[in-house]
């Protein structure tokens, strides 16, 4: 079984556990093994046990880093992918965080709705920055959809102006006369 196949199996079992909340993960694995030609490898067992043990911490991180979305509102598929990826990022040294994020996005493309890949990517990147796995560089720009300051690194450079859906622009803070609109 390749790592990708093992990751898909782990995701499916995490999903199954999310749907059957009262059923222990060991029973879910046993049922899956009996119903399919499935033998969980070390990676799958580690991820399932670890995700179960760290679930409160993982869910808290997901909640804190998903703007305007509580885990209760997320699709079970998205939440299962996020749980798997967060566990891989934080607790599996053998999986680089970039690989965990990329694989989560790929799972979302296959198993989730059209907007899920970018949603999942955004949450996982925020967690990576928060946990020090990924560092912000001056070239990275972070902004919201409301009128807000846009920063590159720690220095405020532009202010985002949204007057209407047709008139969105950036106003340079050091010279109010210089404007650029898109």
Please, could you describe this protein's structure?
Residues 138-182 have low confidence and may be disordered. Strands 1-2-3-4-5 form a 5-stranded antiparallel sheet, with no helix packed on it. α5 (76-91) runs parallel beside α7. It is built from 7 helices and 5 strands. It has 2 domains: 3-130, NusB-like (N-utilizing Substance Protein B Homolog, Chain A, Orthogonal Bundle), CATH 1.10.940; 141-181, no CATH class. The chain is 53% helix and 14% strand. The protein has 182 residues and is an alpha+beta fold. It is globular, with a radius of gyration of 20 Å.
Derived structural class: alpha+beta
CATH domain class of the largest domain: Mainly Alpha
Contiguous runs where pLDDT drops below 50 for at least 5 residues: 138-182
Q: How are the strands of the largest sheet arranged?
A: 1-2-3-4-5
| Average pLDDT metric | 79
User: What is the CATH topology of the largest domain?
Assistant: N-utilizing Substance Protein B Homolog, Chain A
Order of helices and strands: HHHHHHHEEEEE
| Rg of Cα set | 20 Å
Count all strands and give the number: 5
Q: Any idea what the CATH superfamily of the largest domain is called? A: NusB-like
Q: Which overall shape is indicated by the principal axes computed on the Cα atoms?
A: globular
């Amino acid at each position: 079984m390749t790592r990708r196949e093992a990751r898909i199996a782990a995701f499916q079992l995490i999903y199954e556990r999310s749907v059957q909340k009262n059923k222990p993960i060991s029973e879910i694995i046993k049922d899956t093994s009996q119903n399919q030609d499935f033998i969980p490898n070390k990676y799958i067992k580690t991820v399932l046990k670890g995700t179960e043990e760290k679930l409160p911490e993982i869910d808290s991180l997901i909640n804190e880093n998903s703007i305007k979305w509580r885990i209760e509102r997320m699709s079970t598929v998205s939440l299962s992918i996020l749980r798997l990826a967060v566990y891989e990022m934080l607790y599996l040294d053998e999986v680089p965080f970039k690989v965990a994020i990329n694989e989560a996005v790929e799972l979302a493309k296959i198993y989730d709705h059209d907007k899920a890949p970018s949603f999942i990517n955004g949450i996982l990147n925020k967690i990576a920055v928060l946990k020090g796995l990924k560092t912000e560089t001056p070239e990275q720009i972070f902004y919201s959809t409301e009128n807000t300051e846009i920063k590159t690194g720690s220095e405020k450079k532009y202010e985002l102006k949204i007057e209407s859906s047709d008139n969105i622009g950036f106003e340079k803070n050091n010279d109010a006369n210089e404007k650029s609109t898109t």
